[in-house]
Structures are given as C-alpha cells and as structure tokens.
Specification:
2 domains, Jelly Rolls, 10 strands, alpha+beta, 4 helices, globular, six-stranded antiparallel beta sheet
Length: 201
C-alpha cells in the first residue's frame, strides 16, 4: 500500500470510529444500518482491511454522510464557496481496490453547494456494483476515456468518451469496463437537502 493510500486508510478508520461514537452505535448496530458485516467494520476500524469503493458507499449511505467525508475531507471552510478553488488529486487518491476501481477526490463535499466530485478509474475487464445510496443522492457521470457500461436498476446504458448520464442513485447500479484499457470518468455526486450530513464526526 502506498503512503497516500495508507494515509487515506487511516482517515477512513478514524472517520468510521468517529461516526459510530457520535451516534452511540455498536458495531452490530452499524452492521445493520450499513449492510457491512460486523467483522469487516472492525477490520476497517483497526486498519486491517482495505475496503472496496462499493463498501465505503454502503457505509456512507448507512450513516447518511457524503462519500468524501470518509476520506477525512470535511466541508470547505471558505467564506464564499463560489470562489475559485484549485483541485489536485495528488493527496486524495484511494488506491485501486479489489474490484479494480480507483477514486480520486477532486472537490470534497460542500454543504452549501451540495456536491462533491471524483475522477474514477476502472481497470480493463473490471466492474463495480453499488447498492442503493441514500435517498436524495444524484450521480452525474461523464466519460473521459474508454467506454462505460452502466446498469441503473434494470436499465442498461453504454457511454463513450464525451458522453454523460445523470441518474438517481438510490437504486442498485453497476459500472463495467468491457474495453482493453483503463476507463476514466468524472463522477459528480449531488446531495439533495437532507441527503447527507457532510462531515464525518
């Protein structure tokens, strides 16, 4: 594991523990709310397991917080969130998980603007299945390189470079790369009012 991935893994572990303590949830109760096993939750908190992006989403949805808050990225503190803000992926990369997906945080969740933005890479032949996110989460996907095969509920879509799709993410959805090279796309997550608490503790 790289130093950056280890750093983010530490944030995820402390964020999960902080969320549980703030709500007074046991591991068993957290497992019921998130759909992630008690054993896996314990391993994540102790830094013994690198969860997949899909698992992190289940945790975020169960706690009703933004995805980026688990990376230790809280809401912005600028007086005006509309001021130009430089984004960099150098310190905010969650290394490729066992499903072949890598997430790079471009803009962390901002409660005033109600969105966060990622650049996602999916290895050749890989797919990542997501359980429904919390109600009120809307995803906007725009393909940069490759072809994205996307299932939202029972609907299938094929998006090539330059094409995008917006959908309500409170349904099961699956992202697949059927091509021979890495697939890259931007993923903007918009949280309608009440959909996410933002900060992780």
């Amino acid at each position: 594991m790289s130093d950056t991935a280890h750093h983010i893994g530490h944030h995820i572990a402390s964020s999960l523990k902080g969320l549980r303590q703030a709500r007074g949830w046991s591991l068993a109760h957290t497992a019921r709310e998130t759909g992630v096993s008690k054993a896996m939750l314990g391993q994540i908190e102790r830094g013994e397991s690198s969860p997949t992006v899909a698992t992190l989403w289940r945790i975020a949805s169960g706690f009703r917080v933004s995805f980026s808050s688990l990376f230790g990225q809280g809401p912005g503190t600028d007086d005006s969130p509309l001021e130009q803000r430089h984004c960099s992926t150098s310190d905010s990369v969650w290394g490729q998980d066992s499903a072949g997906m890598q997430a790079k945080l471009l803009f962390p969740y901002d409660p005033l603007l109600g969105f966060e933005m990622f650049e996602i890479e999916l290895a050749a032949g890989a797919e990542s299945a997501s359980s429904p996110h919390a109600p009120g989460v809307v995803e906007h996907l725009v393909v940069l390189e490759g072809t994205l095969v996307l299932a939202v509920g029972d609907e299938w879509h094929r998006l090539t470079a330059g094409e995008g799709l917006r959908f309500c993410a409170d349904r099961p959805h699956l992202m697949r790369n059927e091509g021979p090279a890495v697939l890259r796309f931007h993923d903007v997550l918009h949280y309608l009012p009440g959909a996410a608490g933002g900060a992780a503790g």
